[in-house]
């Protein structure tokens, strides 16, 4: 007898009353991996009644894996950060945090955006909320000891604050899909998450974005907008989520909710930025000027074009070309959203648009994978494809440090340029592979693991179960017919799903 969450008739049960989905029952890779801890969950297992609820387990696992990532940085913490560049690259434990403590004036008590920094940078090149995060960490760092000890303590304080962000991310992802909290283990156990979590301050923006998506899944458009605005004040990429939301609300006719979310985003971003914008305009705009002036850098396909093929990649040319490619990608995602046989889930389009931004950008830093991990867990909670992608990212993580060893050592030890280009191609291909899997799920909604139990869009908030009011293409018309037939019961739903997929 099939389990309740696998029974088509279960679609008539309200979402809040359906049982929690167990990955070991629907994912063969998760089932195989569970043998380490006793095997898949049995049919008679009692779920969700113990002290260790799924959300708490996910949070504890995330904290534990984050701690392992801190241990991985131990050689740098003890000595490699302070004995030349090559040592920190050899041990693959580099972090911006201790270096910028000195280079951006925090060790000297300078206030970001207001005090000029000695050197070419002039002002802190981070968005305002991230700058505040860095400054709070500096205030919490003890002022005694020599400079090396203060750098170590600054990194440790930041690591503690980023650990809080990690717990927030894990909890928010676990609660976004009410019936699928275990999908957040993809975030908690992601090896690239542990390896890159303390390279920079990205986790602040990611935590705010994850909280925003949780609020949207609960139908709280204003709270979503406020949190997304705060996330955008910490890092630029979160505002991209408004694009998928616009297209989905357009298809579902939810203009009021989108307007509330947009106003909340703009208002929260302005409240954070306006004081610095007015009182320290030169410092405030440094991030935006630096983003435009930054040359082609590590991890991007632009670097391969420059180094391997000798193409002219002037900053202005790359900025224009990257913008055009991003706009084309967004147009393709919008067309996909409006013409799909069934309205895509919010998390699917959010993942695609952020991935497009990273892939077309002139820099793809190792920690940028953090932006995608929570979105990937919500967009396609399948362990095989997720682990393939993570393997590519771990390979790149090792590749970039070995390449930096090669270019910073006299005897050219490490990974030569050709090998580094292969590492770049591998991690770009891994991201493209996961994008392709998400697109396939959108075009074939009957194979989307989140929708196997009859769910529509658990992270969609007001979009969940909403009727379409605007669609394009034959596939979308087939989708409308499918929803009509689904009202006829499980048999009609299966026939409708096949018809909708056949129209693609």
TrEMBL record:
<feature type="transmembrane region" description="Helical">
    <location>
        <begin position="153"/>
        <end position="174"/>
    </location>
</feature>
<dbReference type="Pfam" id="PF09594">
    <property type="entry name" value="GT87"/>
</dbReference>
<keyword id="KW-1133">Transmembrane helix</keyword>
<feature type="transmembrane region" description="Helical">
    <location>
        <begin position="346"/>
        <end position="365"/>
    </location>
</feature>
<feature type="transmembrane region" description="Helical">
    <location>
        <begin position="186"/>
        <end position="216"/>
    </location>
</feature>
<dbReference type="InterPro" id="IPR016570">
    <property type="entry name" value="UCP010361"/>
</dbReference>
<comment type="similarity">
    <text>Belongs to the glycosyltransferase 87 family.</text>
</comment>
<feature type="transmembrane region" description="Helical">
    <location>
        <begin position="123"/>
        <end position="141"/>
    </location>
</feature>
<keyword id="KW-0472">Membrane</keyword>
<keyword id="KW-0808">Transferase</keyword>
<keyword id="KW-0812">Transmembrane</keyword>
<dbReference type="GO" id="GO:0016758">
    <property type="term" value="F:hexosyltransferase activity"/>
</dbReference>
<keyword id="KW-1003">Cell membrane</keyword>
<feature type="transmembrane region" description="Helical">
    <location>
        <begin position="317"/>
        <end position="340"/>
    </location>
</feature>
<feature type="region of interest" description="Disordered">
    <location>
        <begin position="481"/>
        <end position="504"/>
    </location>
</feature>
<dbReference type="InterPro" id="IPR018584">
    <property type="entry name" value="GT87"/>
</dbReference>
<protein>
    <recommendedName>
        <fullName>DUF2029 domain-containing protein</fullName>
    </recommendedName>
</protein>
<dbReference type="GO" id="GO:0005886">
    <property type="term" value="C:plasma membrane"/>
</dbReference>
<feature type="transmembrane region" description="Helical">
    <location>
        <begin position="419"/>
        <end position="439"/>
    </location>
</feature>
<feature type="transmembrane region" description="Helical">
    <location>
        <begin position="51"/>
        <end position="71"/>
    </location>
</feature>
<feature type="transmembrane region" description="Helical">
    <location>
        <begin position="386"/>
        <end position="407"/>
    </location>
</feature>
<feature type="transmembrane region" description="Helical">
    <location>
        <begin position="260"/>
        <end position="281"/>
    </location>
</feature>
<feature type="transmembrane region" description="Helical">
    <location>
        <begin position="222"/>
        <end position="248"/>
    </location>
</feature>
């Amino acid at each position: 007898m099939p389990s309740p969450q696998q029974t088509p008739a279960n679609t008539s049960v309200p979402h809040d009353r359906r049982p929690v989905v167990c990955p070991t029952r629907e994912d063969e890779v998760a089932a195989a991996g569970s043998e380490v801890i006793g095997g898949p969950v049995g049919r008679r297992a009692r779920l969700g009644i113990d002290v260790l609820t799924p959300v708490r387990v996910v949070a504890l696992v995330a904290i534990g894996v984050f701690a392992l990532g801190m241990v991985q940085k131990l050689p740098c913490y003890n000595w490699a950060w302070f004995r030349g560049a090559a040592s920190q690259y050899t041990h693959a434990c580099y972090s911006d945090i201790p270096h910028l403590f000195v280079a951006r004036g925090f060790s000297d008590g300078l206030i970001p955006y207001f005090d000029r920094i000695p050197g070419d940078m002039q002002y802190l090149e981070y968005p305002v909320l991230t700058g505040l995060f860095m400054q709070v960490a500096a205030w919490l760092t003890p002022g005694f000891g020599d400079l090396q000890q203060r750098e170590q303590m600054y990194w440790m304080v930041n690591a503690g604050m980023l650990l809080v962000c990690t717990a927030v991310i894990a909890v928010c992802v676990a609660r976004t899909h009410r019936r699928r909290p275990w999908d957040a283990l993809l975030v908690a156990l992601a090896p690239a998450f542990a390896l890159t979590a303390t390279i920079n301050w990205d986790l602040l923006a990611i935590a705010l974005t994850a909280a925003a998506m949780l609020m949207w899944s609960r139908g709280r458009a204003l709270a979503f907008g406020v949190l997304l605005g705060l996330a955008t004040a910490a890092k630029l990429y979160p505002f991209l989520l408004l694009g998928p939301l616009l297209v989905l609300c357009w298809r579902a006719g939810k203009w009021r909710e989108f307007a509330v979310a947009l106003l909340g985003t703009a208002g929260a971003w302005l409240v954070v930025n306006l004081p610095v914008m007015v009182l320290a305009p030169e410092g405030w705009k440094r991030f935006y000027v630096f983003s435009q002036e930054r040359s082609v850098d590590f991890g991007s396909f632009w670097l391969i074009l420059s180094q391997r093929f000798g193409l002219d990649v002037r900053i202005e040319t790359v900025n224009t070309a990257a913008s055009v490619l991003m706009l084309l990608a967004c147009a393709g995602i919008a067309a996909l959203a409006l013409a799909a046989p069934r309205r895509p889930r919010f998390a699917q389009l959010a993942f695609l648009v952020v991935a497009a931004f990273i892939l077309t950008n002139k820099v793809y830093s190792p920690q940028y994978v953090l932006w995608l991990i929570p979105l990937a867990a919500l967009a396609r909670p399948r362990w095989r494809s997720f682990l393939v992608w993570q393997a590519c990212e771990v390979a790149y993580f090792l590749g970039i440090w070995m390449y930096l060893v090669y270019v910073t050592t006299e005897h050219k030890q490490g990974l030569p340029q050709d090998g580094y280009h292969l590492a770049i191609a591998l991690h770009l291909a891994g991201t493209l592979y996961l994008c392709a899997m998400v697109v396939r799920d959108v075009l074939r909604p009957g194979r989307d693991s989140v929708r196997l139990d009859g769910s529509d869009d658990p992270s969609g908030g007001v979009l969940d179960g909403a009727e379409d009011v605007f669609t394009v293409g034959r596939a979308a018309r087939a989708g409308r017919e499918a929803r009509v037939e689904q009202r006829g019961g499980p048999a009609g739903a299966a026939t409708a799903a096949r018809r909708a997929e056949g129209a693609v």
